[in-house]
Amino acid sequence: MITFGKRTISALCASAVLAALGACGGGGSDSTPTALRVHTLSQSGEAFAKQGVRQEVAAVAEAFGADITSMAWQVEPLGAAKGAVSVGDTSCATADRRTRSIPDSDKSIVTVECRTTVVVADAGSTKAEGPFRVTSSVRLATGESNSESFILNIVR
Question: Which segments within 12-53 are labelled E, that is strand?
Fold first, then answer.
């Protein structure tokens, strides 16, 4: 089972905010470049799940000085994988979005947290088995984009 708690996501967000605040330097002119600062997943590397399981996953993206225009999930089978694994909210329509102003700066920090469910099929011809890549993609208004993924191995 993929597990994580609100404390994990909160810690990731707090670390990202501190990094962004430290990078802006405070005061006077703001020459810090606009950029995606953080894009993390609740799971990394490799995870295992049983057929028929609904797994919660989350992605957090944070940008400094640019809006996050989209965030999405996708799943693709790898190698000998068979069956179906799907994502509940592929376009992150229900994502939590926060914008914070930076003191003495004309820029802001935009954070998007997308929680959804990965559904592993366990019946008929769609019964899932094998490795699947689960990917979160994010795009900024500047055109910058990034993808992060993990491997979900489906076992009986």
Answer: 35-41, 46-50
The answer, yes or no, to whether residue 64 has pLDDT greater than 60, is yes
Instruction: State the SS3 of 105-118.
Output: CCCEEEEEEEEEEE
- The domain total for the chain is 1
Tokens representing residue 134 in the block? 């689960």
β-pairing, 108-120 vs 85-87, is: antiparallel
How confident is the model at residue 31, as a pLDDT? 65
Query: Is 77 inside any structural domain?
Result: yes
End-to-end CA distance of the chain: 13
Residue 39 belongs to domain spanning: 6-25+35-155
Q: Which helix (DSSP H) or strand (DSSP E) does residue 21 occupy?
A: helix 6-24
How far is Cα 42 from Cα 149, in angstroms, rounded to an integer?
10
Query: What does the block give as tokens for 136?
Result: 């979160």
Sign, CA torsion 75/85/2/62: positive
- Its pTM stands at 0.77
Q: What is the CATH number of the domain that holds 124?
A: 2.60.40.10
DSSP structure class, residue 82:
B
